């Protein structure tokens, strides 16, 4: 006879206990008992077994429950005092696998307790009208408990697979001069290409303590890019990547992939690494890591987020086919209107890529705006509610050499950056004139970058007195200018009289100079008539953009 559940009660008093022996209870009491046991199993797993069933099983389940509560308390404490450590544990491939297995075991164990609780309820003793209600309550409680744990394990496994697919397993990186600098590359990987040609290059520079962020955009047509000290490509191009008009900075990836991969033994993507070194040398900073995003993946990621909200300064064409004879685009596939817009992935992709009727620098401003909109709108609520889709789309990030061991630190920095002003700089208009990318002055670039980062290195950070900076409002944010000096001594290519673009309170251009509303029909009619100059004037402000 088991000590934990005697078959014969020792006294009549035990026989009259309606919880352990429901046969002695009335029908209403049995119904209340059934609901009570379900609630007990939901709130304190094992408690129903202790009061009404196998006490040994109940004590074991209660120990597991208390241990789980203790782990939950530690997790909440880490969330408050050391969030980055918690995220590092969750994103670690081995630790996350252990957590998944524990969650699955807890879900199965909790489900077993509910089945055991159903046996303790003894539905045959319930009134016929009460049986469905108690059964439904038990099923709902089981889904709420075991189902939640099982779904959490599933989502964690989705995230684990995404992290393993996207991020590297190498050593962690240290901040340089108090900052992490990441090269963000957006590229197309067509079947007719060897390697990827990054059409978008920007450095995301983040203060390692405060999370203050600056975005530095490098035009894809920059010439004579300088390779950083120690770069193998510096031996090939000691004076910079200068071999004529074809030596644009976005061509480095393909050239190295095709011709100089042997200079990077053991490197997963020599072309991306060489591009990182060229951007480092050009800007005069150390870029520690890169992320290369395929454009299709970029669109899917925005779709997974539910789109992005922006305010567009002018109409943007979704370009049609390109006529090699006339060197013009055909009828646009569509138009993205000026004003407040919610863009899905396809339209956000076109918004960031289109450069018809305007120059590359208007496109760069729109790309910066899209990046900021994504950072602003990828909040915890969006991440949690759309986690599976976002994680799945994230695997479209072709590659990154960011170590997964540092994801906790970087996610923590991203959360700190929420709500902080993002400072911006473009190696081209409006910060430099349009010809500057052809004959860049790297001393000026380095000074401009240093002063920008100084202004983004703390709430009251400032450059030394002997190198005070001018402030110019670019896109509504503070930017640093080179040290003050006579205008006559400014180097060629420097835009001495820059006209900063409007801040986020700009008014979108939605009408013609005559007051006629700008519509897709009007723009297409001008296109059919061949009046591209009129279109150019109407869409001239489409580089203006602000995240909403």
Automatic annotation (TrEMBL):
Keywords assigned by UniProt, alphabetized: Membrane, Transmembrane, Transmembrane helix
Transmembrane segments: 34-53, 60-81, 93-115, 136-156
Start-end of Polar residues biased regions: 504-513
One Pfam assignment: LytR_cpsA_psr
Location of region: Disordered: 491-517
Domain Cell envelope-related transcriptional attenuator intervals: 197-378
Record family assignment: Belongs to the LytR/CpsA/Psr (LCP) family.
Protein's UniProt name: Transcriptional regulator
